[in-house]
Design brief:
529 residues, Multidrug efflux transporter AcrB transmembrane fold, Alpha-Beta Plaits, elongated
């Protein structure tokens, strides 16, 4: 071979013998390339899918939930019990809780906020802390506390979970309220049986206590009492309304009329109220003109897309992939959702579904644009494809690395795949460009690619190692919240390391096949070596 003097002796010793064998058996290169394509598809199917790793922000937020109708005093007592348990954990630095701020009459919920020590100062991850807190708070018999780590990076999706202690949500909509509510309850019950889900909440709450008051209109009319008069009495007794303002020389006071707090708790306290009759000018017991009974009703009537709606929220146990959970919930929804009711994920879960579909399309577009640019560069339809044949090898190496390391195929991993497209095609460009130069000097296709592999071995190895060592800190998780970006580093490092030498044996064989096709289709027919 005339290429021997161009390559270093070390490179010849390492690769010349194997390269000669491979060029003699070109089918092996094609077979290995097809194996890499098939392996990439298999690894992609086996890898758990995720949207964005939550990272370790050191901040946890959650919601306090008690049975509907619980009083402000009861939710505050539950809040104190939660604070007492959490404050004893050595990893908790600051605590905060807020109750009594819910709109409407129902004050049975609140919020809790937890600040943890820096990740370097504690032995547990934020997910492990949340799981430990959840187990401890589950022992409280009269309420529930749903906790969720606050993500380091949040992408606004335009629709978030309705439950503050849950990360993801599934929304059901339909025209028939009864069907929607029944389907949401069946879906909630089924989700509780799916392994890896916790913090499952339904925003349809039908047990809000309500006191229904009916006026005996005949008796009230005989006493000169109107519905407006009775309403004013009830409002003055229980709503705490502002009546007037009392002013002195130095100060002013707002006059708020209501009965004592201890007489505002039980329905029978209505029997203690009196209303003055304009006919008899005497005080008439309210219970003599009205009747009341206790009943339950929905807390609110949620709507979405101008239809009746119900939202079931949930969180994931650490180690459970969002893609697996989405698949399990979709399978369950297909069984329990009746005709006339439709369901879809919202928030991060919806963005995850969109990203899985769109990123695949974006990947194909990126490869096509790369092909167009290379086609313009080489003025050829064939050899851009030769260069792009390096991509399946690199992708297989990156996906296999994620699979071996037990990582998820997240948005960061997809970014790593796009980085590989830019980084690794330079190996093919180096070989094909050098081979085309040798062909213009009169070499045969086989000698040209053989020479290109030997001469370009060292530059390919050096540039590849520079890229690998440059991104290695990301693969090892260095830096603030570096664990979130580990999939990106593993994808690039694994893909580069695996394909660094493999392409030196795959690309030459593909090149010879492409040369044969180009010669047959675009040039006068000649014999190839």
């Amino acid at each position: 071979m005339r290429a021997a003097h161009h390559a270093s002796p070390g490179a010849q010793c390492v690769s010349a013998q194997h390269l000669t064998w491979q060029l003699r058996h070109r089918w092996a290169a094609l077979a290995l390339w097809l194996v890499c394509i098939f392996g990439s598809l298999v690894a992609f199917g086996l890898l758990p899918k995720a949207f964005l790793p939550r990272g370790d922000s050191g901040f946890v937020r959650g919601s306090l939930v008690m049975p509907q109708g619980s009083s402000t005093e009861q939710i505050r007592a539950f809040q104190a019990a939660v604070i007492d348990i959490l404050s004893k954990d050595p990893d908790v630095v600051q605590l905060g809780a807020m109750t009594g701020n819910s709109p409407g009459a129902d004050q049975s919920s609140g919020n809790v906020f937890i600040r943890l020590r820096a990740p370097s100062e504690r032995a547990r991850s934020i997910e492990q802390c949340v799981q430990q807190f959840t187990k401890q708070l589950a022992l409280l018999p009269y309420g529930a506390c749903y906790l969720q780590p606050s993500p380091v990076l949040r992408i606004s999706s335009g629709a978030e979970s309705t439950a503050s202690g849950s990360a993801y949500a599934y929304v059901l909509v339909g025209l028939d309220r009864e069907r929607v509510y029944t389907a949401s309850q069946e879906l909630e019950a089924g989700m509780r049986g799916i392994r890896g889900l916790f913090g499952i909440q339904n925003n349809i709450k039908l047990n809000m206590p309500r006191l229904r008051i009916e006026i005996d209109r005949d008796r009230a009319s005989s006493l000169g009492l109107t519905a407006q008069t009775i309403e004013q009495v009830l409002a003055a007794a229980f709503s705490g309304g502002h009546i007037t303002q009392f002013m002195t020389d130095n100060d002013q006071y707002q006059i708020i009329l209501e009965v004592a707090k201890e007489y505002q708790c039980l329905p029978d306290d209505l029997g203690l109220l009196y209303v003055r009759s304009p006919v008899t000018e005497t005080l008439i017991p309210l219970k003599s003109v009205v009747r009341w009974r206790e009943e339950a009703s929905p807390q609110n009537i949620p709507h979405a897309q101008q239809q009746e709606a119900a939202t079931v929220s949930f969180s994931l146990v650490p180690g459970v992939a969002l893609g697996d959970a989405v698949k399990a919930i979709e399978d369950l929804a297909a069984k329990v959702i009746p005709a006339g009711v439709t369901g879809q994920f919202t928030g991060d879960a919806l963005e995850f579904q969109k990203s899985i579909a769109s990123l695949g399309i974006m990947l194909l577009v990126a490869i096509f644009l790369k092909y167009v640019m290379l086609g313009i560069l080489y003025e050829s339809y064939i050899h851009p494809f030769t260069i792009l044949t390096t991509l399946p090898v690199a992708a297989f190496g990156g996906l296999l690395t994620l699979l071996i390391c037990g990582r998820e195929l997240s948005l960061y991993a997809y970014i790593g795949l796009f980085v590989l497209i830019g980084l690794f095609t330079k190996n093919g460009i180096m070989m094909v460009d050098f081979a085309k130069q040798r062909k213009r000097e009169g070499m045969s296709s086989r000698d040209a690619i053989y020479d290109a592999c030997l001469v370009r071995f060292r530059p390919i190895l050096m540039t590849g190692l520079c890229a690998i060592f440059g991104i290695l800190p990301i693969a090892l998780g260095f830096g603030t919240d570096g664990a979130s970006r580990v999939p990106l580093g593993l994808m690039v490092v694994g893909g580069m390391a695996f394909a660094q030498v493999i392409t030196l044996f795959v690309t030459p064989g593909i090149y010879l096949y492409m040369e044969a096709i180009q010669t047959r289709l675009f040039t006068p027919r000649t014999d190839l070596e």
